[in-house]
Specification:
Length: about 70
C-alpha cells in the first residue's frame, strides 16, 4: 500500500490544527477525511518530526524481533 503522506508531513498537518486552523479547512486543503485527521491526531498528536522517526524505528525493530520468535 502506497502512502500519500510521510509521517513528517502528517505531523505538519496536525500542527496546523494546533495553530487553530479549523479541522474542516485542513481536511479540505489536504484532501483528507475528518476521520483520517482524527486517526492521525490519535497516533501522532503532540509529536515532533524527530519523535515520529524514533517511533518508526522502534516499530520496525519490534517487527523484526517478533519475526525472530
Amino acid at each position: 500500500m502506497k502512502r500519500r503522506f510521510t509521517d513528517e508531513q502528517i505531523v505538519g498537518i496536525l500542527k496546523e490544527g494546533e495553530a487553530g486552523v479549523p479541522v474542516k479547512e485542513i481536511c479540505r486543503k489536504h484532501n483528507i477525511s475528518d476521520a483520517t485527521f482524527y486517526t492521525w491526531r490519535k497516533k501522532f498528536g503532540g509529536m515532533e518530526a524527530s519523535d515520529v522517526r524514533n517511533l518508526k524505528q522502534l516499530e520496525d525493530e519490534n517487527a523484526k524481533l517478533k519475526k525472530l520468535l
